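Protein Record: Sequence and Backbone Structure Tokens
======================================================
Tokens: labelled as protein backbone structure tokens, with as many entries as the chain has residues.
Task: work out the structure tokens from the sequence, keeping to the layout shown below.
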Amino acid sequence: MLIFSYMAAALIGLSLGLIGGGGSILTVPVLVYLFGVEPVVATAYSLFIVGATALVGAYPKFKQGMVNLKTAIIFGIPSIIAVFATRAYLVPLIPKEVFTVGEFVVTKNILMMLLFAILMVAASVSMIRDPKKTTEEGDAGPQKFNIPLILLEGLIVGVLTGLVGAGGGFLIIPALVVLSKLPMKQAVGTSLLIIAAKSLIGFTGDLGHLQIDWNLLLSVTAVAVVGIFAGDYLSKKIDGSKLKKGFGWFVLVMGIYIIVKELYFPTGSGH
């Protein structure tokens, strides 16, 4: 079972390397259902794993000139502030029992997993859909920024990341293409840097509130990082768009499974 758990952890990095995103959506289910980590703690661990893996993935993109630093800063600053504030102040404020529907008690753990599952379904739809044609070289002329919208989207993505521990690449990449007029390849590289910064800084917001199992966290992170190297190597040989669609269907099934499981066989208050 442990070997299977670490194989699933490698898949997190593999998908990041192959299709530039999506892997973070697997991190929380892998930690909760395979490693037996409590959901609230799993969202914190996920931030560290995703952040470290994205940072490793962003480095070669930066060397290839595929990272737009100005965009990363404009989008990243509100995102980083929002994710840190969410982890440090908002998540600890959520009560253990949030509300009751008849006999069904919605606990903090169940709420976290349901929020996560809804985000998985949204992410899967964006992966399955055929992307609109985007220019590879970007628009001619100077880059234009829709700064108010970029700041707003940065804040929204930051709060979502803070709540569920996913990188949000499927939200960031389209925003960078549409709002910052970035070419697709540059949007992927810039997204990795934004995900790395906001996830790792967001994780520091948890350090005073949660007990961290560093052995487990660092071992899963190491396996995910190995996965991103393997994914980057395979991406040169495999058509990423077909993989993305297949992965999207897998994420959709996982999201529906989590919704059904949490409503009928809810995750306990601990493991």
